TrEMBL record:
Gene3D superfamilies named among the record's database cross-references: 3.90.660.10, FAD/NAD(P)-binding domain (3.50.50.60)
Alphabetized GO MF terms: oxidoreductase activity
Domain Amine oxidase: 90-312
Top-level lineage group: Bacteria
Protein name: FAD dependent oxidoreductase
Stored PANTHER family: FAD/NAD(P)-BINDING OXIDOREDUCTASE FAMILY PROTEIN, FAD_NAD(P)-BINDING OXIDOREDUCTASE FAMILY PROTEIN
Amino acid sequence: MKIGIIGAGLSGIIAARELVRQGHVVELIEKSRSVGGRLATRRIGDGRADHGAVYFTVRGEELEREVQSWMNANWVRVWYADPYPRYVTIDGMNALAKRLAEDLTVQLNERVENVQVEEDGTVTVKTDVTTRSYDRLVMTAPLPQSFDLLGDLAVDVEPALRRLIYSPTFVGLFECAGDVQIGADGILDQELVPGVLKIVDNRQKGISETSLISVYMEEAWSEDWYERPEEETLAEVERLFREEVGVLDIPSRQLKRWRYAQAKDVWHEPFYQVSHHPIYLAGDVFLEADDPSGRTRFESAYLSGLRVAETIEKNMDR
Ligand SMILES: Cc1cc2nc3c(=O)[nH]c(=O)nc-3n(C[C@H](O)[C@H](O)[C@H](O)COP(=O)(O)OP(=O)(O)OC[C@H]3O[C@@H](n4cnc5c(N)ncnc54)[C@H](O)[C@@H]3O)c2cc1C
């Protein structure tokens, strides 16, 4: 069976690994030049800064077992554990995605433009590079992007799913000179100046040689500032950062803008089949029915990828 997966973020990679394990021919199509999606790390000078997921937490047994094997391989470690473990990748979140995708077939720098179903049931995926055909297709982009690609194929999708909206997030990345200390563990996330959600020192976090600080802005703040010029937004993030931590020497700064950082609501099934078509929507917004946290996160992306792959395998002859 030939299976296509749109998006090489965590859910796409996990689905691909499971389907390859079952013996299928699997191809990931990713518009960016690297895998990882929202597991994102930027190199700045001699340092590294995460600017997507900050850390991940584990509630279920399946991810727990997987994390044990990642810890044994020295890929991840506990950053701090108050009151429960926060896991990080030793060299930045993106490196975990790269390691997990190492043996997979990934078409990078290729943007899917639309998806069609042929009369014989084959799924045709038109990209900005070529046209590809699959027996099954998994789509893991944020939902508004997946629905754009599906066009009329999505007319019968439940309206509540089509209505899910996402909020943006700005992240400021600041290279700091001198001996910077951000709290005891390298993170501040309580009672910060309005607008600022988290301040993370990537050196204290253990992924950077240099003091690179990631400043995560709140959802409402990011919405208010979304259409403003980038320089103005970055200057305001820096002003609020300085207001929180005091005097700093900042030789360089950058801004990351996530259009679809996280969904405002979730879907209580781990994936969704588009009508009777061999097309499945997956990703962090799809939670297990009994998910204990009700939040989109690393673990929900992981489980969504796993469940959609298990179901495709189970229903192979249909
Ligand atoms: C700023 C920020 C902070 C976060 N902090 C945390 C945290 O601390 N803890 C936590 O657990 N989670 C956190 N998250 C959430 C976590 O990163 C996500 O839940 C998870 O990485 C989502 O994985 P995914 O595979 O569902 O989606 P994605 O990672 O978004 O993957 C989708 C992929 O599809 C690709 N794509 C989209 N459209 C197309 C197209 N047309 N053609 C080809 N490819 C396409 C994208 O480039 C992307 O690589 C954070 C997210 C952000 C943005």
